[in-house]
Specification:
- This protein has 4 helices and no strands.
- It starts with 6 loop residues before the first helix and ends in a 23-residue tail after the last helix.
- The mean pLDDT is 84.
- The protein is mainly alpha-helical.
- The longest helix is centred in the last third of the chain and has 27 residues, at 63-89.
- Helix content is 58%, strand content 0%.
- It has helices at residues 7-23, 30-40, 46-55, 63-89.
Length: 112
């Protein structure tokens, strides 16, 4: 995956390459394709790639399913980046209140 590429672009580029290789007569299993995709991900995706390798049966996971999982993760990453960016732009300030002794006032009675 290129550094300026999102998952959709990577999906399109990778699919085109795999289709061309298939046209030349080389067939890859689902597991081989999945491992190639996961190895191509950037370092910040390493945790997600490891989780997918450990929890999914890559022999049964299609390329579409894998890219769907990665697109959902990319959305989460972008959401986290935007949230931390807005926190930097609009920093919050902690406020503390001092409590003073409270005296009970007698009830005011109005005369009629």
């Amino acid at each position: 995956m290129l550094s300026n590429e999102n998952i959709d672009q990577f999906d399109n580029r990778f699919t085109a390459i795999i289709n061309e290789i298939n046209d030349l007569g080389k067939e890859y299993t689902n597991k081989e394709v999945a491992l190639k995709i996961l190895r191509a991900l950037p370092k910040k995706w390493r945790t997600k790639a490891t989780i997918i390798k450990d929890t999914k049966d890559l022999k049964m996971t299609s390329t579409r399913q894998l890219f769907s999982m990665l697109k959902a993760y990319e959305y989460d990453l972008n959401y986290d980046d935007e949230a931390s960016e807005s926190a930097t732009l609009f920093p919050t300030k902690s406020v503390a209140f001092k409590v003073s002794k409270f005296e009970k006032h007698s009830e005011c009675k109005t005369e009629k």
